[in-house]
Write the structure tokens for this entry.
Amino acid sequence: MKRVRIGLCMGDREYGDRFTGCLMNHYREQLELHIYTETESLWLDVAEFDVILLSDYEGIIGDQAKEKPVIYLYDREEDVEPRQEEGVYFVDKYQEVNKIVDEILKQIGEEIKSVCQNGSLQGKYQVIAVYSLAENEYQLPFAVTLSSILSEKERVLLVDMQENSGLSQLVDCESSSGLEELLVMAESGTYSKSRIVSCIGHLDRADVIYPAHNTECLCEARSTTYQKLMQLLAQEQNYSTLVLNLGSRFVGFFELLSACQNIYLMKSRGGLGQWREKEFMEEIRKHGDDWNLKIKEIEIPLAASPVISCERLVEQWKWNEFGDSIRRMMPGVVPVG
């Protein structure tokens, strides 16, 4: 993805350091900063940039603004009256940085859109949940295997909502954007497509959202926020299937679960895990009568040798009998025999 080239000159050194530091920490995949100490030098290179960002108001700037959009970050408390001038835009400097970034993207043609507020998961796509009470260390490899098999025929996105699932060990997590930022977009109701793309990576055949750095946010978000996020991702990125690797229960957990077309439930072979599963099944039946039609019980096969890595395990599962059993569970597959 092409990064936005910004020519930047900040007279307020302290504010400039904090502002540019925040941009580099959270938007390095989207923005390319070229920092100047004098505006005269910046104007000499104006043709190289997509947008100019300044903090000191200089009055009418002449023909330079006709070449590139110029954004002034100003303090509303100061006695500076924003001027109506072609190509010049005044933005309050003391607000959330993501709102300033939205303004930058808007001025260069990146449309800032609104998230649909109904939060419904109805649409031309399916949502599949993966969940476990007793065998949760196998949730992630199973979710990856399932996503990979599904992506053989369709466009699939894996959304990891399980705390410390191990996903960061499988994908390049140098990106500062991920599930946290997507949840903020869904909650605030506005987004830009380039910001969505910066939060998504690749894992095997499927796409995957970079994991949350602060996993506390996973249970703090509400069901309506997650539902708006799923709708946003499916429609803007054209995914036909979203695979949710679920973790701790948030407010409205069962509401979101009931909206899924299929639920893959990891089964324990014995011990107290069976008690937990029995209580779970009793609990979900209180939320509806059609759960048995959605739930597909998965018994993880015993490993013939010690598990070396998640990648190796996924590759084994995909091409052995376990992978075949997963394929037979796919929607539209008619059982044989």
About this structure: The domain at 126-328 is CATH 3.40.50.300 (Rossmann fold). The chain has a mean pLDDT of 81. The radius of gyration is 24 Å. Residues 223-237 form the longest helix (15 residues).
